[in-house]
């Protein structure tokens, strides 16, 4: 598996982003349990269901040396818009640009005018990531994650064609 190439002077992404293979799904399920609090992680059956759906693009980030799954991004395309259903990075691999690379890979892979997602109100780290990637807040979903756990809808218009990615990825 090749190491990704840095496009600029930014540090290289320590993982390769690619479409999920069947054999990745066990690793994704384990990573989900590490990444989310109980109740929010997708289990293996749900991951298989999503992986099989023709409207879904399922990407993983694999460790460049070991091949272990370090992150995933699952996006569902409905007509002209794309919804990010799930994005997660293993706690041992955070703040190295993996989620950024996954988001950019989904954008590159899916020709859609708009991408939307929902994020928990108090998940400020994820909101900072999305804002940095051009998402803006578009709505509020009361109790979306359970009583008292509200969601924030965020949306991004497709970036202008030709805008240079900050990091090179391999999908
Ligand atoms: C949110 C998450 C996907 C980010 O993954 P990541 O690979 O660490 O993100 P990146 O390294 O690409 O972060 C890019 C930028 O986003 C912001 N960011 C990401 N995580 C952050 C955090 N915990 N706190 C503050 N800013 C954060 C920073 O600006 C960061 O750039 P920097 O590291 O140069 O400061 C990861 O923390 C995660 O899996 N969390 C648990 C699951 C989850 O909340 N998923 C989102 C559900 S909507």
Q: What this model shows, in words?
A:
The chain starts with 14 loop residues before the first strand and ends in a 14-residue tail after the last strand. A seven-stranded mixed β-sheet has the order 1-2-3-4-5-7-6, sandwiched between helices. Helices cover 24% and strands 30% of the residues. It folds into two domains: 11-112, Aminopeptidase, CATH 3.40.630; 114-158. The chain is globular, with a radius of gyration of 15 Å. By secondary structure, the protein is α+β, with helices and mostly antiparallel strands. A hairpin with a 2-residue loop joins β3 and β4. The chain is built from four helices and seven strands. It has helices at 25-35, 44-52, 98-109, 124-132; strands spanning 15-19, 56-63, 69-78, 81-89, 114-120, 136-141, 151-157. Bound molecules: coenzyme A (COA).
